[in-house]
Amino acid sequence: MPIDAAKAVAAQPRTGEITWSHKDVQLYHLGIGAGVPATDPDELRYTLESRLHVLPSFATVAGAGSPGVIGGLSMPGVDVDLARVLHGGQSVRLHRPIPAEGTATATGRIAAVYDKGTAAILVMRTEVADADGPLWTNDAQIFVRGEGGWGGDRGPGTRLEAPAGPPDRTVERPIREDQALLYRLSGDWNPLHADPEFAKLAGFDRPILHGLCTYGMTLKAVVDTLLGGDVTRVRSYTTRFAGVVFPGETLRIRMWRGDGAVRVAVSAVERDDAPVLADTVVDHVRHPHEPS
Q: 207: pLDDT confidence band, cut at 50, 70 and 90?
């Protein structure tokens, strides 16, 4: 079998040093659409090194994503065709704010393998710590088509009940035609997002946007809209990738404010609000004067 679940989970973690600088943070922020308008003070905190705040989703690319999703597909017990791989979901848990530059140790392992019948899901966990202690934990759920059916654990359900009532805020965010080409410079070189021929092999008419680019764009919208632009209030951020996005489209981001959490749903405007991100939650520190 291409996936040996027991071997994959039992494999020794891979550990390596990662480093990043303010330039990496700025490039990531530009890759998720920051900097428009270029002179807006609220945007300069994402783009100007002297004011730089780090959006927590930067954790998914810090150190060029090392050990990274693609690297994890070469772990013992895993031998899959990249054209069959899709990013199914992502969560980031922050232990403290991410510094604008740093050196840290990243430890990556396959935390679980689930059998969904017609597909397998790999949960790839990366824990990152520096000299002062833990920084963040990333969990990437990797969906591998055609690799299920061995009778393994189906895993926990991740679907949430739909938020009640109309959203508290709705914003739209345009995606540049070259957004994927810019975003991939932060370290995700999967040709699915740039090469039309590879995209066709994977079953798409043209290259699609990275799910993690949509993920970052969405968190930025939540932080800017409901969290007063304060990136340090984010505790964790979880989503399920429900559909693809094509460069040049527009994201419609609906937000429901809760007690210490924001529920989010994201869709593609031009395709009749086709779902893009679902079961999305931003847990955050409550502001003393924030409405429930």
A: very high
Sign of the CA dihedral running 254, 212, 120, 14: negative
Q: Which residues pair with 266 in a beta bridge?
A: 253, 277
The crossing angle, in degrees rounded to 10, of helices 211-226 and 22-31 is 90
Catalytic sites, residue numbers: 188, 193
The answer to whether 106 touches 63, Cβ cutoff 8 Å, is yes
Q: What is the pLDDT of residues 116-156, one digit of tens each?
A: 888 888 999 999 999 999 999 999 998 888 888 888 888 88
Give the whole-angstrom CA distance, residue 135 versus residue 140: 17
Tokens of 20: 């990043």
The CA distance from 215 to 233, in Å, is 17
Q: What letter represents residue 292's amino acid?
A: S
